[in-house]
Design brief:
The complex is a heterodimer of chains A (204) and B (30).
Chain A: H1 2-55, H2 59-62, H3 69-78, H4 80-85, H5 87-101, H6 105-112, H7 138-146, H8 152-156, H9 160-167, H10 176-179, H11 182-190, H12 194-201
Chain B: H1 3-27
Classes of the chains: A mainly alpha (204), B mainly alpha (30).
Chain lengths: 204, 30
């Protein structure tokens, strides 16, 4: 065995290096790509779901009279976001719920009031919905919130030093800030310059 | 066992060791 090792040490070393490179690729380089793809797919899916909720006709109000009151109320419960987004159309549904629950409209309105009107975008209760920045997903929102970043204005004001500091804490998302130009995106979003944003970064 | 097979086994072993070292460096971190 030792004779073989002496004779073929170069081949064995090459095999070792290849194993090392393969490990680096599998556990380090490829993992980053994989996470990005996964994240992108996730973000698209969430965006599509949100858009579907926004575009969807108000389930309860669409065909009044064809649904039983119970089914109507169930539909509202299933799609509160869509119903609330179209507050006017949701009124019949609310009336149906009032009848079902047998409570006064005033009380029920109070009970319904806390529901967020912009439910499709699950933004944190304070601050902006950072996911509007392209390249920022739910995980990054959490990571940024942990560092106290919740507003577009904060990101818009970042200097190079700030970017380095924040980037260092982004784990496997490192490099995203500059790659996706968060600062420019945030500046436009903070200024509500939607047309300029879409011109430069594509449709929101 | 022919000599080429011994060499092959040794190379496989070395490849596995390289993979193991790489995993211990990059694989466990997250």
């Amino acid at each position: 065995m030792s004779e073989l090792m002496q004779e073929y040490w170069l081949l064995i070393l090459v095999a070792l290096v290849i194993g090392f490179i393969v490990a680096w690729w599998v556990f380090h380089a490829a993992r980053r790509t994989h996470v990005e793809l996964e994240d992108k797919a996730d973000g698209d899916g969430a965006a599509k779901r949100n858009q579907a909720l926004i575009d969807a006709p108000p389930v309860a109000g669409a065909v009044p009279g064809t649904m039983s009151a119970a089914a109507n109320a169930d539909a509202v419960a299933a799609a509160p976001a869509a119903a609330d987004a179209e507050a006017g159309a949701a009124v019949p549904a609310r009336e149906a719920m009032h009848k079902m629950a047998d409570v006064s409209p005033g009380e029920s309105a109070e009970a319904l009031a806390p529901e967020p009107t912009d439910a499709p975008s699950p933004a944190p209760s304070q601050g902006d919905d950072l996911r509007r920045i392209k390249g920022v997903g739910p995980k990054l929102v959490t990571l940024l919130a942990e560092q106290g970043v919740t507003n577009f204005a904060q990101i818009a004001a970042w200097t190079d030093a700030d970017i380095d500091r924040i980037d260092a804490n982004l784990g496997r998302f490192q490099g995203r800030i500059r790659r996706d130009d968060w600062v420019a995106q945030a500046q436009m979003l903070a200024a509500d310059d939607i047309s300029g944003y879409e011109e430069r970064f594509g449709k929101i | 066992m022919p000599i080429w097979m011994e060499v092959f086994v040794l190379m496989l072993l070395a490849y596995g060791i390289g993979l193991g070292i790489g995993w211990s460096i990059w694989g466990r971190s997250s």
